[in-house]
Amino acid sequence: MVVASSIPHLSEKISGAVGFPIIDLSLDRSHVSNLMVKACKDFGFFKVINHGVPKLVIDGMEKEGLNFFSKTDLEKRSVGLLKPLGYGNKSIGLNGDMGDVEYLLLHANSQSISQASKSISKNSAQFYSTVNNYTQAVKKLACEILELIAEGLWVHDKYAFSRYIRDIDSDSLIRINYYPTCIDSAAAAVHQSRGIGFGEHSDPQILTILHSNEVGGFQVALHDGTWVAVPPDSMVFNVIVGDLMQVFTNGRFKSARHRALANTTGSKSRISIIYFGAPPKHAMVYPIPEVVKHMHHSLYRPFTWDEFKQTSYSLRLGDRRLDLFKVT
Ligand code: GA4
């Protein structure tokens, strides 16, 4: 059963007219950083091209993903339904959210990937090197983007944001979401509940870097709540502002609410690979003083990433968890 509240409602606003910013990373640095800050303020979302991640690295990762999801239910479950990390099927988080999606969710550090590889693949050395290469390349991209954003915001310390995910104890994650075609799923009941692949939410972390194959379904909400379909394009990386970035910028950037519709193509599975850049658990998070200076007061109280993460997991997927951290 799909949670009723997450099914797209007929009366909701949907627009096809908005083209989200596409930022060419090969252009002049100060121009790129200004474009990024504008995109973060206007949408909390943009796409990047000429990102420097080799196609071979992306294709290899997708292939490992498809290979894993093509296994039998029993084989996949043997990875361990390590809550909340490991293999998941339809159930999202710990509080009853459901979607028409299968996923693998892993910590993004080399040691954890190496550990997980042993239970995920018979050829664990190959799985490890493919997933680790992809994760390292996308982490580098995330750091570059965060440094460009810091420059565009005129923050003194260019590493103010990226240092959290460069930290050896960073709690960043890597996720592969698999949205089966109608044909893939046997049960008629599943067909009836089709609508949502992954329900509306914002990401709790700093920044998310999402890649998907050429199958559609991904949507991003504008600030006024209108949903906009993001046309699938395997040449781009999609960049999503997370909740912590909203806090760092004292609300000047808003975390983007996004969702994935269930895959109704009937022909090809949708696969997306997502990197979530997060601080170490013990790191303190608060609006950066240079931003607050211009705005006179902090909108959010200081908290640790661990506290915020625990709160996120205690709530539903679509809940607006940042409201609980506002200064009253
Ligand atoms: C959204 C971003 C990441 O995918 C994730 C998700 C996590 C999960 O799937 O286990 C959460 C969700 C995400 C936000 C609120 C909580 C936690 C499901 C959920 C209901 C891995 C994450 O870090 O937060």
Could you provide a short overview of the structure?
The protein is α+β, with helices and mostly antiparallel strands.
Description:
This protein is α+β, with helices and mostly antiparallel strands. The protein is 33% helix and 23% strand. The chain has helices at residues 29-42, 55-69, 73-77, 110-120, 124-152, 162-166, 188-192, 243-248, 289-295, 305-314; strands spanning 14-15, 22-24, 45-49, 86-92, 97-107, 173-179, 196-201, 207-212, 218-221, 227-229, 237-241, 258-261, 270-277, 284-285, 303-304. The strands form three sheets. The protein has an eight-stranded mixed sheet with strand order 2-3-11-8-13-6-5-4. The chain has a five-stranded mixed sheet with strand order 1-10-9-12-7, with no helix packed on it. Strands 14-15 form a two-stranded antiparallel ribbon. The chain is globular, with a radius of gyration of 19 Å. The two termini are 38 Å apart. The model is unreliable at 1-7 (pLDDT under 50). The structure holds gibberellin A4 (GA4). The site of gibberellin A4 has 16 residues, from strand 5, strand 6 and helix 10. GO terms for molecular function: gibberellin 2-beta-dioxygenase activity; metal ion binding. This is gibberellin 2beta-dioxygenase. Its EC number is 1.14.11.13. Residues 169-279 form the Fe2OG dioxygenase domain. Keywords: Dioxygenase, Iron, Metal-binding, Oxidoreductase.
Keywords:
single chain; 328 residues; alpha+beta; five-stranded mixed sheet; 10 helices; globular; disordered N terminus; binds gibberellin A4
